[in-house]
Design goal:
Blueprint (H helix, E strand, L loop, with lengths): L7 H4 L12 H7 L4 H11 L2 H8 L6 H11 L1 E3 L14 E3 L2 E3 L3 E3 L12 H12 L2 E4 L7 H7 L4 E6 L5 H13 L4 E5 L9 H6 L9 H9 L1 H9 L15 H8 L6 H10 L4 E6 L2 H9 L4 E4 L13 H12 L4 E5 L5 H9 L4 E4 L1 H33 L12 E3 L9
Parallel strand pairs: 4-11, 5-6, 6-7, 7-8, 8-9, 9-10, 10-11
Antiparallel strand pairs: 1-12, 2-3
Helix pairs in contact: 2-17, 3-17, 6-7, 6-17, 14-15, 16-17
Length: 410
């Protein structure tokens, strides 16, 4: 083959460069093409105990793996020759329009992941026009979240305490701060055995040890931020010290029954969501008691290990509830395709926690925004490839779970 000297006009297209990003945060976020990429970034930029607190689950972590594996079993059924130039992800969630069927779930001790904490998540939710739920175990008060994100559709998540007067006062504060929806979590009579936290010696506040001192050297930026901003503590609990499990076992009420839901129904005039439902019978029980919505959830695998897998339970629970209450799902959702699959199989909306926490650890509020951008982009692409233009048009014909064959008999 005869060789020649290339012309400049032929070389020029190869010499183009991408946008110059001076900010190291912007550079690492721009490199993340998926939530899994954000997880990898987060793992490098926070102490191991912090990452494991978010990433880990109970005991053998079987529940968490099964939740993620269930989405790997989803088989989409696309329709072709459909006009999908204009796809609409919007839906209504408890009577209010949401830009997509997504809720930023309540997460505990959120300023541990990044000093910007809950307010940054609420602000991103407001910009995305989706709901945000603040946890009882949050590190920012309801009043401060309301001030930081006055336009957000704010929900408040409650654990019932042994001290019912204190719980009632917290509900009052949330209501007076403009929180619209109350979530009652019912799967935490005692704390699950989160063994990564045990192995890491994770306490609140972090205990200084030889491992901690080494970690300071490896992650000086994270430690600098923690030591030069407001003290890291729960916003509504005065009891500190020990592990999160110690706090749960000391403060939360293990005697809670459906009768306590009736008491709460009298105290809260807005919609109530019951989170932690895992069986059709329990779904019927709480809907009969007046729940406006339920979340099929095994607490992200952080409570009872080897609990039912939410996506697998969704069809039966949806059939048991019918149209009497909205049905949401959480657990294992790490892509926009997972969101669309859940809706196609019967969920009204999906709650995500780890997905945005990976972004928060990777880059604060900008990382949360990147998480939301990825989920939205993936959801839109999935809808277009499915040949579906509106969320309301998704149904069981769009997605199904493949059977996974077990081992062959000897």
């Amino acid at each position: 083959m005869r060789r020649r000297v290339p012309r400049w006009s032929e070389l020029r297209p190869y010499l183009r460069t991408g946008p110059v990003r001076l900010s190291p945060v912007e550079r690492r976020l721009a490199s993340a093409a998926t939530i899994w990429d954000l997880r990898s970034v987060a793992r490098r930029h926070v102490p191991r105990a912090v990452f494991d607190y978010v990433d880990g689950a109970a005991e053998t972590e079987t529940s968490l793996r099964r939740s993620r594996d269930s989405f790997a079993r989803v088989e989409f059924v696309p329709r072709v020759l459909r006009d999908v130039s204009d796809v609409d992800l919007s839906t209504t969630i408890l009577g209010r329009e949401s830009a997509m069927p997504l809720v930023f779930a309540p997460t505990g001790f959120t300023r541990l992941m990044h000093q910007e904490g809950e307010p940054s998540v609420a602000r991103v939710a407001a910009r995305m026009s989706i709901p945000y739920a603040l946890s009882t175990l949050g590190t920012t008060s309801p009043e401060d979240v309301a001030a930081a994100a006055p336009d957000a559709d704010r929900w408040f998540q409650l654990y019932l305490w042994n001290d019912r007067d204190a719980a009632l006062d917290l509900v009052r504060r949330a209501r007076e701060s403009g929180f619209r929806v109350l979530i009652l979590t019912v799967d935490t009579p005692v704390a699950g055995a989160r063994l990564r936290d045990v192995h890491n010696g994770f306490t609140i506040p972090p205990t200084l040890s030889l491992r901690t001192l080494v970690d300071i050297g490896l992650h000086p930026g994270w430690w600098f931020d923690k030591l030069t901003t407001d003290p890291l503590q729960f916003a509504v609990f005065t009891e500190t010290g020990g592990t999160v499990a110690d706090l749960i076992n000391r403060v939360f009420d293990p005697t809670i029954t459906v009768a306590d839901f009736a008491w709460l129904r009298d105290a809260w005039t807005g919609p109530i969501v019951i989170k932690g439902i895992q069986t059709p019978d329990d779904a019927r029980l709480v809907v009969d008691a007046g729940a406006d919505a339920i979340v099929i959830s095994n607490h992200g695998g952080r409570q009872l290990d080897r609990a039912p897998t939410p996506l697998e339970q969704l069809p039966a629970i949806k059939a048991a509830v019918g149209d009497r209450a909205e049905v949401y799902l959480d657990g294992g959702v790490l892509s926009g395709a997972d969101v669309i699959a859940s809706v196609a199989m019967g969920a009204r909306a999906v709650l995500v926690g780890r997905a945005y926490l990976y972004g928060l650890m990777a880059g604060g509020e900008r990382g949360v925004a990147r998480s939301g951008e990825l989920l939205r982009t993936e959801a839109l692409r999935t809808m277009r490839l499915l040949g579906v233009r509106r969320i309301a048009d998704l149904d069981a014909s769009s997605a199904r779970l493949r059977d996974v064959a077990g081992p062959r008999p000897d």
